[in-house]
């Protein structure tokens, strides 16, 4: 079964627009779980443009599905994650000023650093996932870091899908097979939506988790959050 982890960054974006507490990030997370989310994902960026440090502490108290915290493993992130101890930490190579995540790790040149960070997080009982591009050369080095999982960066798939979905998914199927052979758990995320999700799932049925935020929250503006989460869950139930 592929779990749906709902990324609520954009709920915090809306809340921050007025400086009060509407929408309430904690309430939305609890409702999302009640509506069928099998995980909650947040990405507390250094500038706190959406999810703030305090949100992470507040959510850790109440999330009952899998809590997944994404971010660049600087001291701020590591201290936060080791204190909060989520089910999973997803390491992303984003510079502080990145408008969004736009690439995976170079696990060749960063292998030593990643190996130490993975071990430090695993010592705290946290499952680790490494954000990765669908390039074969990065997968054996990723395995050597000791990471539990990799998360396939799926923006290139989403961009290519409308023109030629078979071509767009091809590199992902190839590296997914390698990940499986290496014994790596397999997540996927970024720019997945109601149009492209089912084909990714059909093409890689053994995905452990997809984390979806931007498109899902945009869809919820039209369909409502409960209906939207159910719509995304149904896309993952394709045989
Ligand atoms: C790592 C990734 O691809 C996304 O989870 C990221 O969290 C999106 O960040 P923004 O919501 O800040 O665009
Ligand atoms: N790891 C991907 C994620 O959490 C959400 O990415 P997006 O759906 O907001 O692009």
From TrEMBL:
<dbReference type="InterPro" id="IPR036130">
    <property type="entry name" value="Pyridoxine-5'_phos_synth"/>
</dbReference>
<keyword id="KW-0664">Pyridoxine biosynthesis</keyword>
<dbReference type="GO" id="GO:0008615">
    <property type="term" value="P:pyridoxine biosynthetic process"/>
</dbReference>
<feature type="active site" description="Proton acceptor">
    <location>
        <position position="43"/>
    </location>
</feature>
<feature type="active site" description="Proton donor">
    <location>
        <position position="190"/>
    </location>
</feature>
<dbReference type="Pfam" id="PF03740">
    <property type="entry name" value="PdxJ"/>
</dbReference>
<feature type="binding site">
    <location>
        <position position="50"/>
    </location>
    <ligand>
        <name>1-deoxy-D-xylulose 5-phosphate</name>
    </ligand>
</feature>
<comment type="function">
    <text>Catalyzes the complicated ring closure reaction between the two acyclic compounds 1-deoxy-D-xylulose-5-phosphate (DXP) and 3-amino-2-oxopropyl phosphate (1-amino-acetone-3-phosphate or AAP) to form pyridoxine 5'-phosphate (PNP) and inorganic phosphate.</text>
</comment>
<feature type="binding site">
    <location>
        <position position="100"/>
    </location>
    <ligand>
        <name>1-deoxy-D-xylulose 5-phosphate</name>
    </ligand>
</feature>
<comment type="similarity">
    <text>Belongs to the PNP synthase family.</text>
</comment>
<feature type="binding site">
    <location>
        <position position="45"/>
    </location>
    <ligand>
        <name>1-deoxy-D-xylulose 5-phosphate</name>
    </ligand>
</feature>
<feature type="site" description="Transition state stabilizer">
    <location>
        <position position="151"/>
    </location>
</feature>
<comment type="pathway">
    <text>Cofactor biosynthesis; pyridoxine 5'-phosphate biosynthesis; pyridoxine 5'-phosphate from D-erythrose 4-phosphate: step 5/5.</text>
</comment>
<comment type="subunit">
    <text>Homooctamer; tetramer of dimers.</text>
</comment>
<feature type="binding site">
    <location>
        <position position="18"/>
    </location>
    <ligand>
        <name>3-amino-2-oxopropyl phosphate</name>
    </ligand>
</feature>
<dbReference type="GO" id="GO:0033856">
    <property type="term" value="F:pyridoxine 5'-phosphate synthase activity"/>
</dbReference>
<feature type="binding site">
    <location>
        <begin position="213"/>
        <end position="214"/>
    </location>
    <ligand>
        <name>3-amino-2-oxopropyl phosphate</name>
    </ligand>
</feature>
<dbReference type="InterPro" id="IPR004569">
    <property type="entry name" value="PyrdxlP_synth_PdxJ"/>
</dbReference>
<protein>
    <recommendedName>
        <fullName>Pyridoxine 5'-phosphate synthase</fullName>
        <ecNumber>2.6.99.2</ecNumber>
    </recommendedName>
</protein>
<feature type="binding site">
    <location>
        <position position="7"/>
    </location>
    <ligand>
        <name>3-amino-2-oxopropyl phosphate</name>
    </ligand>
</feature>
<keyword id="KW-0808">Transferase</keyword>
<feature type="active site" description="Proton acceptor">
    <location>
        <position position="70"/>
    </location>
</feature>
<dbReference type="InterPro" id="IPR013785">
    <property type="entry name" value="Aldolase_TIM"/>
</dbReference>
<feature type="binding site">
    <location>
        <position position="191"/>
    </location>
    <ligand>
        <name>3-amino-2-oxopropyl phosphate</name>
    </ligand>
</feature>
<keyword id="KW-0963">Cytoplasm</keyword>
<dbReference type="GO" id="GO:0005829">
    <property type="term" value="C:cytosol"/>
</dbReference>
């Amino acid at each position: 079964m592929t779990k749906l982890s709902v990324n609520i960054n954009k709920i915090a974006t809306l809340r921050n627009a007025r400086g009060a507490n509407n929408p309430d990030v904690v309430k939305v997370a609890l409702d999302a779980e009640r509506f069928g989310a099998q995980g909650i994902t947040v990405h507390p960026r250094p500038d706190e443009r959406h999810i703030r440090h305090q949100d992470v502490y507040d959510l850790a108290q109440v999330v009952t599905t899998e809590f997944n915290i994404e971010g660049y493993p600087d001291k701020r992130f590591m201290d936060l994650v080791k204190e909060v101890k989520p089910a999973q930490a997803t390491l992303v190579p984003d510079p502080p000023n990145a408008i969004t995540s736009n690439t995976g790790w170079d696990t060749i040149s960063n292998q030593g650093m990643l190996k130490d960070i993975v071990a430090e997080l695993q010592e705290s009982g946290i499952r680790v996932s490494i954000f990765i591009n669908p390039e074969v050369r990065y997968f054996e080095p990723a395995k050597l870091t000791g990471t539990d999982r990799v998360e396939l960066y799926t923006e290139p798939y989403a961009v290519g899908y409308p023109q030629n979905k078979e071509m767009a998914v091809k590199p992902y199927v190839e590296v997914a097979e390698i990940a499986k052979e290496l014994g790596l758990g397999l997540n996927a995320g970024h720019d997945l939506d109601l149009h492209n999700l089912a084909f990714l799932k059909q093409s890689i049925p053994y995905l452990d988790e997809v984390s979806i935020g931007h498109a899902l929250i945009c869809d919820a503006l039209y369909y409502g959050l409960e209906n939207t989460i159910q719509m995304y869950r149904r896309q993952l139930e394709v045989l």
